[in-house]
Amino acid sequence: MEVLDPYFAKPAVPAAFEAAAEGRTIVDVGRRGKYLLFEFDNGNSMVIHLRMTGSITLVAPDGTGNPGDPRIYGIGEDEKHLKARFSLDDGGEIRFTDPRRFGRGFVAGPEALDTYFASRLGVEPLSPEFTAESLAEMSAGRTGPLKSFLLNQKGVAGIGNIYADEALFRAGLHPLSPGGSMKPEHHEALREGIVAALERGLDLGGASIDDYRDARGDAGAMQNEFLVHRREGDPCGECGVTIVRIVVGGRSTYFCPACQKRLRRRPRHSKTRKG
DNA sequence: CGCGCAACCTGTCTGC
DNA sequence: TGCAGACAGGTTGCGC
Asked: Would you state the pLDDT for residue A62?
């Protein structure tokens, strides 16, 4: 394998990354939050995060998804956004491209990985552990905006700017409502909104606003079905009121001011402990 | 510990 | 045409 941009391996050095991946067989692929996992035959895993503009492309031996494929952003004549490449036994290649250079990759053993994720990621929203109760627990006492709570990966993992907006709309919750302002019915509504938004995104192959493509170079279709995200000025599909854009935590945030009611802050229930 | 914001990068688009 | 400024699928680190 070859690391062409030292930023990709940061804070490690390219040579260390290359040595850890060289000659390995990928025995499984997976995901945790927004981190992509490639498990090696020696028990270690290669972890890749695409951040804003990273792409993974599979170039098949028969030339499918070839370097000149115009669908694949950043892989063109000059290949100037190609940051890493992994040669496969069958003559194919896995490529990582990233115009903005935010994407990162590293190789780690199982224990180190657990530690790494434990300090960064909360519950998987599509797992059975994600319940109204767990949502209630992790949001209790929070004073920051619900939108920021959703973007913070330590509560619920894997929700980004698109799905935060879509989930809040589906739940009928205002992005500026304090995280701890939800009542039980809101916890359940938000849980349902998050799951529905994510599952819709999966069904549609993700959202390709600009240059996102899947490993075969195909765009997603979720962007065609956004309910509020990036739809400032459009009428709400539910009530017709104009969708507005605000900035929350430095991120563009879109919502329907009629459908999404702002909740008032409420005091944290003090845990009553025996003793 | 929670919160808000700047920083990290490059490319694209808008307005003057 | 040029140029400044805003904005973009995310995370981290810092100050308070």
From this structure: 74
